[in-house]
Amino acid sequence: MRGRVKAATIAAMVIAFSALTQAPSGAQSSNEKPKATEVGISETEIHIAVLADVDTPLAPGLFKGAVDGVRAAAKYFNSTAGGGGIAGRKVVVDFTDSKLNPTAARNGIITACQQDFAMIGSAMAFATNVDDEVTCKDKAGAATGLPDLPGFAVSVTQSCSPVAFPVNPSQLDCATKDQSPQTYRSADGSTRYLIKKVGKALHGAFLFGSDTKDGVRGSRVVDDGNIAAGIKADQQIGVGGSQPQSAYTPIVNKMKQDGSNFGTAATDTSMILLRSEAQLQGLGSDVVWYCGCYSQADAANPVLDGTWVDLIYLPVEEASSNPMLKTFLQYVGRDNADQFAVYAWAATMEFAEAAKAVVAKRGVNGLTRKALLSDGIPTLTKFDSGGMIGVRNIPQRSSSSCFVMMRIEHGKYVRQYPAKKGTFDCDPKSNLTIKADYVG
Questions:
Q1: Tens digit of pLDDT for each residue in 334-362?
Q2: Is residue 85 within 8 Å of residue 78, measured between CB atoms?
Q3: Could you give phi then psi for residue 109, rounded to 5 degrees?
Q4: Is residue 14 over pLDDT 60?
Q5: How far apart are CA 91 and CA 313, in angstroms?
Q6: Residue 304 backbone dihedrals phi, psi, to 5 degrees
Q7: Distance (Å, rounded) from C-alpha 328 to C-alpha 336?
Q8: What is the pTM (predicted TM-score) of this model?
Q9: 119 beta partners
Q10: CA 43 – CA 29 distance, rounded (Å)
């Protein structure tokens, strides 16, 4: 289940592709003339905000994919192929760089409240105060809140905001966030598949992100799910994102002492350093390496060869198997098609489907923040972004049991399971619950 989370705790839905493409067109064909109905909605435009950590000295371009994904989706919806707009209006994207800074994130939310209809596809590691989105006033002056449909939500405050519905939700059951222990929802289908595939008992090193409390929480949930599925932990250790390869020396030493045959890390950067140190120390080639290492750069890195990769979305290599994935690649570009672009694109699809439901019920001038939250989001109980990602229940903020298992082989991602391209394993028996104290 490692591929479900990256950059702290990030890791779906059943709309037909035809329904998405026809929604804007149907709204356009209405005799009702669009009017300015809400903050961010004029007669001709719908403004949406994307907030993402991009220009940061610690990780330049960190979540640039989120911006690329939202902009690409807006371009698609504004095109003839996408219907010429949403609710009879062109989609305009306003980007704010949150810069891995809680103050910048909060200021961005305040700005979005004042000028945008909703926040879509955002990717912020430090959205630690969302009071301004919860109390945001609509055009009528009511504190309806600013609809927040992020690509993923890292902090507990954003994950559990009453107006936030991430396309890739946190594992935390928000009803238990103030309890001890809390309840976390996860899935172990990919881990059980891996154990069966390699045909031996696995035990080894679990490396989790230790830069923030939210990072620790997200990584530990994934690790404990893997352990619950049957992989024994010889060591569980937090590693900061800025630590050098030398920090991995004692970890690999212990792996050698324990005879470990399994290793996993919270991010691709951490996995690269772990495997580089393992090679330096001559750690045996029989180790099963497992992480969420999915990018063209990761595939091309020889140190990651043989790594198992668990995905909750279809790999871009399979664009021919899914019309929506093919459209995504056409508009975002192959070089920009990282997992954050996938999440952001899907979040924009989520927004479009919710808006379509409002328009179907209330007409093109019934689209308001309140209506999106009360009449649009609740319809997304089985949403999969046109089959691009695993089905999940958006209003319940439920994670998905769906997965695809890949492996990096000689510079390419090769599907391992299920065998058929364009498909997922979505066995509900894979769902599991973890009780633990990760918040605090």
A1: 989 989 999 999 999 999 999 999 999 99
A2: yes
A3: -65, -40
A4: no
A5: 25
A6: -95, 5
A7: 10
A8: 0.90
A9: 49, 148
A10: 15
